[in-house]
Write a structure and sequence with these properties.
Blueprint: H1 2-5, H2 15-36, H3 46-74, H4 86-111, H5 118-172, E1 179-183, E2 190-194, E3 198-204, E4 207-214, E5 217-224, H6 227-233, E6 240-244, E7 247-250, E8 254-260, E9 263-268, E10 275-276, H7 282-290
Antiparallel strand pairs: 1-2, 3-4, 3-7, 4-5, 6-7, 8-9, 9-10
Length: 291
């Protein structure tokens, strides 16, 4: 569960998309209240119910406009996409629902002359959450579908670049070779093998796990070291690329890229488990492959 909550989540929509999102939420609230008339709206005549529904929809629209557009414009550093995760999205969505609740409470107090007390606040917390759950679920579902399609399409383009790069490399014979020697931090443990046998390296607490194909058999070796130190030791090998905070891969072993709602996944020769790519490195990865 915590791995899922730590995954980056997209927030790069344009201001126009955010404006439309606020408008759609407000429209949904208006239509939902008008059609179903919950929360004692059924006791009002149609004109009064329509008026109340419109005003609550308007409150929702205006509050979300502030949250989705104004706040992100005023505090862009809080919404950097590469640092945005699902749990932050959950917190932000909860904040938006809370602010809509505040707007509804204040509107009801000043417009309908309702007593401003704890009972009114808790009542509108229940009402707002009950109504908000439907559009939120629909929005998240549509966003996930859109991201899967987007990353799937981009992954297809990158796969074409991989095949083109493989052909150019085979024709030019430019693949770097030679013996690779990796050392632990205390320099007592060493591991040597041809660089073309390296598959990937992953961080494991204070250790790194090195995956390579010695004698054409998949092998693993653990060294006490940080991934950053491994990155420094392998800096001269352009095909070895740190694609994630916990992974480095040999791009020459890359056979396929897939895309889902969380981003790209790298599929290496002889490895069943795909390697994730940090969202902040998506463009950089495309540049690496096209070289």
């Amino acid at each position: 569960m915590w791995k899922i909550l730590a995954q980056p989540f997209p927030i790069s929509e344009s201001y126009g998309v955010r404006f439309r999102s606020a408008l759609y939420f407000g429209l949904f609230v208006f239509l939902f209240l008008l059609i179903f008339r919950p929360f004692e709206l059924h006791t009002l005549n149609f004109r009064s119910a329509a008026s109340a529904s419109f005003y609550y929809g308007l409150v929702c629209f205006l509050v979300l406009l502030v949250c989705l557009v104004l706040l992100r414009a005023l505090f862009p550093s809080l919404f950097i996409e590469s640092r945005w995760t699902v749990w932050k999205e959950i917190v932000f969505d909860s904040f938006c629902v809370f602010m809509v609740t505040v707007g509804n409470v204040l509107f009801t107090h000043f417009y309908w002359k309702a007593n401003l007390n704890a009972n009114l606040v808790f009542r509108f917390i229940w009402i707002t959450c009950s109504v908000a759950i439907f559009p939120l679920c629909i929005m998240i579902m549509l966003r996930q579908i859109g991201l899967m399609r987007s990353y799937g399409k981009l992954a297809g383009s990158l796969n074409e670049q991989i095949r083109a790069a493989e052909k150019e490399q085979a024709d030019a014979g430019t693949e770097q070779s030679g013996m690779l020697t990796l050392q632990s931090e205390n320099e007592k443990d060493k591991l040597s093998f041809p660089v073309e046998e390296l598959l990937y390296i992953e961080a494991a607490d204070n250790y790194v796990k090195i995956h390579f194909t010695g004698n054409e058999v998949l092998q693993h070796r653990v060294l006490r070291s940080s991934l950053k130190r491994m990155e420094e030791m392998l800096a001269t090998y352009s095909q070895v690329y740190r694609c994630h905070r916990a992974y480095m891969v040999n791009l020459n072993k890359l056979v396929h890229i897939s895309g889902n709602a969380q981003g790209y996944k790298l599929h290496l020769a002889g490895i069943d488990e795909p390697i994730p790519v940090s969202r902040s490195l998506n463009r950089e990865l495309a540049g690496k492959i096209s070289r």
